[in-house]
Amino acid sequence: MKKLLFPLFLLLVGANVNAQQDFFALVGKDTPSIIFNDFRAIDATNGTSGEKIFTSDFSAKVFSQTRNGSVTEDKSSYNNSQAINMATLAYDFNNNLVYMPMFSSNIYVLNAKTKDITLVENTVARVTSCDINSHMTRMATGYDGNIYAINNAGTQFLQISKKGNQYVVNDLGIIKDDISNGKNSFTKIETGFGGDMIADADHNFYVFSAYGNVFKISTKELKAKFVGKISGIPENYSVNGSAVNAKGNVVIASAKGAPMYEVDLNTLQAKQIGGEQNLHIYDLASKYFANDKAVSNNVFANLDIYPTRVDEQFININVNDKTVKGNIKFNVFDLSGKNVMTQNLSVKEGSLNQQVYLKNLVTGAYLVSITDESGKILLNKKILVTE
């Protein structure tokens, strides 16, 4: 397996204080079958629960995007915002929890602050309660800010994006097995179904199947490549949730009422997390991404920018290197390569500590490039701007 080097997002001072604000779990009742109980914040460092964001007993306020108004849902059906058969969850860049009932094509967007819900009537997905292949069981936010979901058999790869005030759903195609997978098939129930997925900063996805198999999804080729099986978990452990934590490792959880584990994506070695040991977790979601730093090139160890996830439109530039002299240029490029911002900065005696305002940058991924007076690149680094 190719070794990956990450994380892109480093654990900053105060991250533990905010840990429960960016890591979420879809939790079920303590029963053998799938019965939705709540969405809650989780401290992924010590395995303890935080605030319950939304529960099966809440009085849901649902706004239909198609009908442009409030709707009353049938709570006994599979098509409602509090259906018992929840299995997917993602956390977007605007403090929303996005999810789908497993037996339904409906998409729901829950504002974690106001608890208001937007119903996206999805006519693209072909989900039926009687076809296990069609059930949407894996969901994650991509590095581009869109939400992605994959059904059990990989026959539908959905992209959920927001255009203005409307959510738009596209089917990106069928994900097929890489020729090297052999018996470890992504599209077979015994090896590839269920579980959850995470995203990296190069727009790839990793599916953690219920059986502990891990597949890397190439969005360009629409192929799933088997990269290995998680080690260090019990033989009968069912992997149902996965999300990246602030350290860049993957946290997995089970619907069977088992402990959570932290998994090193380099080795797929798992170690148990303390805290609550019997949570029935159907899915996990976070704001973090795995990344192999393929586009990062920090020539000078004492020149850096932070944070790489920009929540408040400001970024800090720190230089502490006497070989860096005179003026440097701070450039920001979008993913198409267009220069969207340039600012000249002055380094005095090898030292600079300055905050830069990233004005007019919309939510999304960018590449920051810092060059010296001769045009030599001193640093290239991806950042993620959120609103």
Automatic annotation (TrEMBL):
<dbReference type="InterPro" id="IPR026444">
    <property type="entry name" value="Secre_tail"/>
</dbReference>
<keyword id="KW-0732">Signal</keyword>
<dbReference type="InterPro" id="IPR011047">
    <property type="entry name" value="Quinoprotein_ADH-like_sf"/>
</dbReference>
<feature type="domain" description="Secretion system C-terminal sorting">
    <location>
        <begin position="305"/>
        <end position="383"/>
    </location>
</feature>
<dbReference type="Pfam" id="PF18962">
    <property type="entry name" value="Por_Secre_tail"/>
</dbReference>
<protein>
    <recommendedName>
        <fullName>Secretion system C-terminal sorting domain-containing protein</fullName>
    </recommendedName>
</protein>
<feature type="signal peptide">
    <location>
        <begin position="1"/>
        <end position="19"/>
    </location>
</feature>
